[in-house]
Amino acid sequence: MADNNQDKKSNHEAEPESPPVQSEDTLEKQVREEKRVEKRGFGTFEGVFVPTLLTILGVIMYLRAGWVVGNAGLVGAWLIILVSFGVTFFTGLSLSSIVTNIRVGAGGAFSIIAHALGLEVGGSIGLPLYLSQTLAVALYIFGFRTGWLWLFPSHPALFVDLGVFATLFVVAYVSAGFAFRIQFVVLAVIVASLISVVAAVFGEGLTEPIEWWGTFRGGPQSPEGGVSFWGVFAVFFPAATGIMAGVNMSGELRNPRRAIPVGTLSAIGVSLGVYLWLAYWLARVADPVALRSSYTALIDNAAWPRLVLAGLLGATFSSGLASMVGAPRILHALGEHEIVPGSGWFSKLGSNKEPRNALLATAVIVFAALMLRELNAIAPLITMFFLITYAMINVVVLLEQGLGLVSFRPLIRVPLFVPAVGGIGSFVVMFIVNPAFSVVAALIVLGMYWFLVRRELKAPFGDVRSGLFVAVAEWSAKRVARLGTPSERVWRSNVLVPIERIAEIRGLYRLVWNIAYKRGSVKLLGLADMGEGDELAEQLPRLEESLRNDGVFTSSTVVEAGTFGENLMASLEAMSGTVFRPNVLLVRIPKTKTRKEELATVIQRATEKRVGVLVLAEHEAAGLGLEGSINVWVDEMSPEWELKMELGDFDLALLISYKLATNWDGDLTICVNARKEDEVKKAESFLSDLRSAARMPAAEMFVGQGTLRAAVSQAPAADLNVFPMHGEPDYDKLRKLVETAGSSCLFALDSGVESAVA
């Protein structure tokens, strides 16, 4: 194995579970789909830039920008704008980096996160994000109604809401292309409204003196109540959370690797410029009191107020339309991966390749939300889910780039501080905006993750979770290596089980599981003659999977070389240098002279490598009985019978017996043989002290007299007797003990690194 070039190994090393690699059919299907989308998909401008820009330049720009400047002053307002857009910009850079490294599927942020951290994490973010986008439609409709009733106060509010909802639904149902053509009209209206603002400069001009830092007096509803800097920030920040509008269309973009970075970053840059300029304009056209006392400062001071009001209506309508188009695409992607109930129905596309089933479900939720008539109470929760999504996008880039994976080859590479700042900023902003809803949102996401983990979803793509765990394991392994020999206090049973025929381990399955569970591990070592390892190589992984499904970390390897002893010793040599090496060797009692000789050499080598040995001698009739009671025998300590930290050679016997009794939920009896009658009292006192020091108060005690075989015959009946073993065993004596005990026996040889009293 070590230096033998003729050794032939078939390894099935258990690593952290990784999703299946994409099959050729799946990859070919993706490539065909990409080519189809390239022919009829949306470009950067209409698919990403316009919907992102219109969502950012929304209600807050028209109704809250003046209030922000009135409270914070010009410098304060600029600082709020820059911090808000800073978080968004860093997230946009991280988003740009990750989308240039993967084949972005449908579902936008869900697809991005799922490709990196698995379907469970992607789904736990994607479903709340979908609901947030859906409920946001209702909020935008309410915002549209506010502006509409300003123009037509006699119109019934419910009719306005239902009319806007019906219009949004019809436009989205026809096609995303139709929706985007309408957004071009809305963009023209918003541009016209901004021109109306600029034109005001040529009227009365910019006459007001600038208040550089505000007094934070509050607003129309609480003019004397006051507000903090972060309170004003919390009101403004949702304006910067519009970058998902274009990302949601990821599955229908001609070239998402180019469209998303260019469209998103351009929209962020343009909207940032607009907000900074508007803050200056507002500070010069109205005094702080007027800005604080009215939410309509932008409209009141424009050259043509009705044009700005039209811009407000257009902004709310376009934001609602972007969410009405984007949300069903998230639901459709969730359905494709069977994350939500009714996934088969949601994953179906209409004749024009539109997710109409998902749109119908979205429309039902929006309609129900409209009937509630009041969503302000949960509006902050919507912002929280957007911020969690932003944070996870940054985390994805931080992990993938930080792990140094070869597969992470983005066309746009950003410094590590970018996702770090973006991620930390997103979490910090969450708790600034609304701490209570931040906790609620986090609990919802964690609950969704727990639910999806139990579903055991199967992804058609790989992710980086295994790489993350490997990186942590490598870091831990290096620290362990520096610390030297593992402490007795962290001992756990890592069992090496040599197997020549698969039937052997089937008979040992329960015993092996009970020794290793829980927190231990099993290494199945298939030992085969040259050219005869195929059967073991095929069957061991199935057994490995069974043990892993039963909660025991298991790996398997098949070695083809020389004899049983040569193979096993070579394997011990090779494994002795590993960090997570086996520390217990489990073998059956040999039956032939040759095997006895081989096992004697193996035991000697195991002792040198500080590996404990368990030799199982099975009772042909009793087996392991009812797995309800264990007698563990300790060495007699005459004449002093003093308990010391160095117990002798029965630490492994005690530890294994305790584990078996715990997993069997059985009875444990600690037994010792006192050769002389006058030593019985001392032996009982010794066992009492040992039971206390080993922290096994529930264990019974038994003191036998005479020879060991005599004491065994006097002991209570047990399903298994465990004896300490010293050096090379006398197998004839071991078999006689089995006959005397009337049960299977386990003989334990200490490695020297375990302690029952540690």
Brief overview:
The protein is an alpha/beta fold and 758 residues long. The protein has helices at 24-40, 44-56, 59-63, 65-99, 109-117, 119-151, 157-174, 176-199, 229-236, 244-247, 256-285, 288-293, 297-300, 305-336, 343-346, 356-372, 379-403, 417-433, 435-455, 465-483, 502-516, 534-549, 564-575, 593-608, 651-664, 680-693, 708-714, 731-741; strands at 8-12, 494-499, 521-529, 553-561, 584-588, 612-617, 629-634, 667-674, 700-705, 720-724, 744-749.
What topology emerges from the helices and strands here?
Blueprint: E1 8-12, H1 24-40, H2 44-56, H3 59-63, H4 65-99, H5 109-117, H6 119-151, H7 157-174, H8 176-199, H9 229-236, H10 244-247, H11 256-285, H12 288-293, H13 297-300, H14 305-336, H15 343-346, H16 356-372, H17 379-403, H18 417-433, H19 435-455, H20 465-483, E2 494-499, H21 502-516, E3 521-529, H22 534-549, E4 553-561, H23 564-575, E5 584-588, H24 593-608, E6 612-617, E7 629-634, H25 651-664, E8 667-674, H26 680-693, E9 700-705, H27 708-714, E10 720-724, H28 731-741, E11 744-749
Parallel strand pairs: 2-3, 2-5, 3-4, 5-6, 7-8, 7-10, 8-9, 10-11
Antiparallel strand pairs: 1-4, 6-11
Helix pairs in contact: 2-8, 2-11, 2-14, 4-9, 4-11, 4-17, 4-18, 5-6, 5-17, 6-7, 6-14, 6-16, 6-17, 6-19, 7-8, 7-14, 7-16, 8-14, 14-16, 17-18, 17-19, 18-19, 21-22, 21-25, 23-24, 27-28
